[in-house]
Amino acid sequence: MEIHGSALVTGSSRGIGRAVALELARRGFDTIASMRDPAAGLGMEQEAAGRLRVQRLDVTDPATFDLPDDLRVLVNNAGIDTPYLPVEHADMDDWRRMFETNVFATVALTSAAIPTLRANRPSVVCTITSSSIIAAVPFFAAYRASKAAASAFGDSLRVEVAPFGIRVVEIMPGPVDTDMFRLSKGDPDAARFPEYRKLADTAAELRRAHGDQRVVECAGAATAIVDAIVDSSGPMRYGCDPVSYELIDLWRQSDDETVFTLTGQSLLDHMGQGGDN
């Protein structure tokens, strides 16, 4: 992909979004780092040496959508999570908030951007989902469901916009050192329910022993993400860290029951080695 024109990244105030916006600017795109509170982007414009501007955009409020005429790259990064609870104890308001941001807002902004991206082809829609949608991760049902919905949205979008010269790219991060990741490392929310304490503690133990030891910095993930965006001959789905690379490879080489056996069933087997609740 030739590098010219504008790129817009949502949720750019911190974490992966901030790093991707800075990396796109470093590569030569005129980058809009969008966020709900532009004050959170203090210093980004100076860091990008004139290739980036901070702009207010709330993905849940279409009235704030302001897309540049030369837009060629849209990165749907903005997202939220909620407490990781058993489905039995699901908070439906949390589920609705999650889908409002992680799914409906992604659809709304992408829909608004398609005419401009078509006019500036070749162009790219890149959506950040999660490699957790591949694995049977307990207590992540709300988060995984919202990201899986965004992933399925991308599958259909890919076919619809390919004739317009618009590529669809999905990034499926694993453990990346973001605020959201660090918050999820605390005591598991599900452990406060006695009937789920053992599973919650076992899942947290395995995560600390494996995933947490392989976390990558946001800048490294951003380099991989922008590589994927500009790789015109690549696939739709990419990882950006060692754990996501392994999960995507497993997913591509296995059927769904094999993936469950190696992820969800493995966790249950490990839990069986422990003591009683």
Structure report:
The longest helix is centred in the middle third of the chain and has 28 residues, at about 90-120. The protein starts with 5 loop residues before the first strand and ends in a 6-residue tail after the last helix. About 45% of the residues lie in helices and about 15% in strands. A 7-stranded parallel beta sheet has the order 3-2-1-4-5-6-7, sandwiched between helices. It has about 280 residues and is α/β, with parallel strands linked by helices. The chain is built from 9 helices and 7 strands. The model has no long low-confidence stretch (mean pLDDT about 90). It has one domain: Rossmann fold, CATH 3.40.50.720. The protein has helices spanning about 15-25, 45, 90-120, 140-160, 180-185, 195-210, 220-230, 240-255, 255-270, and strands spanning about 5-10, 30-35, 50-55, 70-75, 125-130, 165-170, 235-240.
Beta content comes to 5-15%
- Total strands: the figure is 7
Number of helices, where a helix is a run of at least 4 consecutive DSSP H or I residues? 9
Q: Examine the coordinates and then state which fold CATH places here, giving the name of the CATH topology.
A: Rossmann fold
Q: What do the pLDDT scores average to?
A: 92
- The top-level CATH class is Alpha Beta
Number of domains: 1
Read across the widest sheet, the strand sequence of neighbours is 3-2-1-4-5-6-7
Specify the CATH architecture: 3-Layer(aba) Sandwich
End-to-end Cα distance: 55 Å
Fraction in helix: 40-55%
List the secondary-structure elements in sequence, H or E. Answer: EHEHEEHEHEHHHEHH
- Round the Cα radius of gyration to an integer and report it: 19 Å
Write down the overall geometry: globular
Task: Tell me about the largest β-sheet.
Answer: 7 strands, parallel
Low-pLDDT residue intervals, each spanning 5 or more residues: none
**CATH homologous superfamily - what is it?**
NAD(P)-binding Rossmann-like Domain
Structural class: alpha/beta
